[in-house]
């Protein structure tokens, strides 16, 4: 689209330059011809072959016309400069052609001053015509049509008035046509904007409907299963506590119950966020680096020897979105350890501070697993995507016999 717009703008520039050049050439030739209108601008020789020769004064007037018509190249950006140049030629007496060109662009540039512009234009043209009718000006038309300079016939005066009226009428038609085109273009732009807005609203409604469907599925499906699992884990914990056989069994039952309750609460948070009217799902209040200690406790409860270094400074100043993202990164990496390296020792390093940013580094030995947990590496890809979405980086993979995850996130 940008290349197409560039080509279109270049083509428009070429067309504008061509129109300006044509207008300049025509205007200069026309006003040089109209030098004969100025008293003393030309010497008329009658005879078998009547001729008109431009005098020294006429040469100066012709040069002035050339200079004034240069402003036609800047008529759109500086219409007042063109208006001044057109007024000079009108007062000198060559023609009011450049003044009409300037009036056209002034009317387009400042439509609210339309009445003033028309009053000045009509008044200036009227002065020009009255000077032709009652003064010694306006010889060019008489000479070109009759090879004479006498203006005794009233038809010449009527011709000046008619030409002025037609010129002003043509100016009015051109201005109206241009304004109609501009209004039509603005109407098309407004219609396009309304269509785009309607499409955006349709898309938002579709997204909201999809989010509602996902929320219902999570609440009715996953929520029900987690509730059942939490109830079963609670019953299992009660039975294990009533008839203790193995203390570790009771601890496992407690862990399963806590995890089931935590998962159920997170599902409720996600469902509430999906049903919210805002565009983006709000981060869960429970998804915070403040809960890192609970994650480590759950990890140790599953039999992992954990060496942890966790430093979190000024957590109240951390943006909730970045806080939630950092917690999810730690949570997913520890879950990955429990799934793919059960019982393996874990090194956990979490450092978060305004001046240092957020750094999460977790490693565990590469160990063979007899019964690998199901998974499609979507969690690790999700970590990379989550880090990239907030301007962070993530390196995850085997390194010197260890499975290493090193994630850096900005502090916002």
Task: Quickly list its features.
single chain, 5-stranded mixed beta sheet, two-stranded antiparallel ribbon, 11 helices, alpha+beta, Heat Shock Protein 90, 412 residues, rod-shaped
Question: Would you mind describing this structure in some detail?
Answer:
The chain is α+β, with helices and mostly antiparallel strands and 412 residues long. Among the domains are: 139 residues, no CATH class; 128 residues, Histidine kinase-like ATPase, C-terminal domain (Heat Shock Protein 90, 2-Layer Sandwich). The strands form 2 sheets. It has a 5-stranded mixed sheet, with helices on one face. Strand 4 and strand 5 form a beta hairpin. Helix 3 packs antiparallel against helix 4, helix 4 packs antiparallel against helix 5 and helix 5 runs antiparallel to helix 7. The longest helix is centred in the middle third of the chain and has 89 residues. The two termini are 35 Å apart. About 1% of the residues have low confidence.
Tally the helices: what do you get?
Answer: 11
Number of strands: 7
Query: What proportion of the residues is helical, as a percent range?
Result: 55-70%
Gap between N and C termini, in Å?
Answer: 35 Å
**Which stretches are poorly predicted, pLDDT < 50 over at least 5 residues?**
278-282
Q: Which oligomeric form is depicted?
A: single chain
H and E order = HEEHHHHHHHHEHEEHEE
Largest sheet: 5 strands, mixed
Query: Which structural class do you get from the secondary structure elements?
Result: alpha+beta
The mean pLDDT is: 82
Q: Strands of the largest sheet, in order across it?
A: 3-4-5-7-6
Report the principal-axis shape. Answer: rod-shaped
**Beta-sheet strand percentage?**
5-15%
Q: What is the C-alpha radius of gyration, as a whole number of Å?
A: 43 Å
